[in-house]
Structure formats: C-alpha cells, structure tokens
Amino acid sequence: MSLAKDPYLEHRQKWLRFSPTELDSILVQQRLQGLGSEVEWPNPHLEPMVGQRIKATARRSAVAIILRDQPDFPLLLTRRSFKIRFGGQWCFPGGREAVSDDSLRDAAVRETEEEIGLSAQDLTWLGCMGHYYTQSGFLIEAHVFKAMPDCLCRLNADEVSELIEIPLKVLQNPDHYRIIGRGLGRANFQFRWQSVQVGGPTVSLLIHLMRCLNDAGLSHDRIA
Are strands 196-198 and 186-193 parallel, antiparallel or unpaired? Predict the structure, then answer.
C-alpha cells in the first residue's frame, strides 16, 4: 500500500530549510547585519497575500525577540493573559507603538518591561530583523536582543500568564514545525514543542529568524 502524498511537502521544504547550528550573540549579530527596518518579509502561510490597502493603513507595532545569554541560547516566549485579546496565544513581548516612543525599537523595549519586567539595562540590542504585515492590519517590526544570563523576569499578570524559554536548537529543528490544512487550498504553519503551540505571525517570524540565523533566508525571502 502506497502512502498518501503530503500535499504540503514542497511548501514545507521551501520554508523549513534550516537545521541546528551552533550560535552565539556575535554570530547572531553578524547574521542580522544585512537586515534592517526597511526589509519586509513575506507570509510563509498558505493564504492570500496581505493587500496594499491593508498595508497602507496598518497599525505600527514591534516585538522583542529575546535570546538569553546562556549555553543553549534559549529564546523567550510569553503566553498572553486570558484577560486580553487573543488570550492564551504564545508570542513575543511587544505591542503597538505609543506616542511616547521615539522608535519601534523603543516600543519593543517599553512593552518588554511592561509585560515581563526586563528593562533596557537587561537587554543588549543585536539588530532589527525587518518588518512583517499581518492579515489583521498590523505592521510588526522585529528587534532581536540578548538578555543577561541571570536577569529575572517579573510577569505582569494582566498581560502575561506564562513565560517559557525554548532552547535555540529546538527552534532550529524543522521537525517541530507542522502545516495545518484549513481547506480551500489554505494552510498554516505551527510550531509545537511539549505543551507549546505557536501559530500566526509569531511562527512566521520564528521561521524567518531561523532561516536568517541559518543563512538560508537573507536574500531569497525578503520583499524589500
């Protein structure tokens, strides 16, 4: 009996071209040097592209992709409080730009302190990965930081219900990424590890980050 063909095999192979690689903060910084806020990343999910009308009116926001400076270089993810919109979803610290922010990088740092208690003194900026548009009308600018190995997180229960640190090699393993079909030719990537399931824009940025750190997505993926 022949096995059923995976309808998403080609799409999966296109986007998950990365593998576990030894990295440190210096190498991460080097891999991000060719990027910047003007770089736009495409949507890896199988769904319609974000239209120009949505992009033109997109609300500006930023996320902090934080790697703790420890041997396994774990990445911090937060679970949204069930008291707020999209409660229970795993995501990066971040949120909308405020009038008081001088830049989206400042917005990422401010939101990080509000959500998990890490301030600018706890973080070292490694680079800006670029921006990404969502179907719901947001422009998300992604900034990568290194956190001190012993800094303590203090969760704001009104915004964050849980925090987890995932080893970088786990995130670099394509076996932890699946494609979930939604019908009508649409499908979405999802990262799964232990009890954690990450989807939406967060998994899109995870995939782009892993490809960049693996030197697989610096020139082929970005739109601008």
Answer: antiparallel
Is the pTM higher than 0.85? The answer reads yes
Residue whose C-alpha is closest to residue 178's, from 167, 187, 186, 166? 187
CA 22, 129, 205, 88 dihedral sign is positive
Helices (H) and strands (E) in the chain — how many of each? 6, 10
pLDDT of residue 3 exceeding 60? no
Domains and CATH numbers, the chain: 9-213 (3.90.79.10)
- Rounded Cα distance between 16 and 20, Å, is 12
Q: What is the 3-state secondary structure (H, E, C) of 15-37?
A: HCCCCCCCCCHHHHHHHHCCCCC
Residue type, position 51, single letter: G
End-to-end CA distance of the chain: 46
Q: Which tokens hold the place of 177?
A: 């990424």
Asked if 62 contacts 70 with a C-beta cutoff of 8 angstroms, the reply is: no
Each residue of 8-33: pLDDT tens digit? 999 999 999 999 999 999 999 999 98
- Model confidence at 71, in pLDDT bands (50, 70, 90)? confident
- Rounded to whole angstroms, how far apart are CA atoms 156 and 133? 27
Is the model's pLDDT at 207 over the cut of 90? yes
* CA–CA gap between residue 202 and residue 21 (Å, rounded): 21
* Torsion from C-alpha of 28, 33, 36, 188, nearest 10 degrees: -40
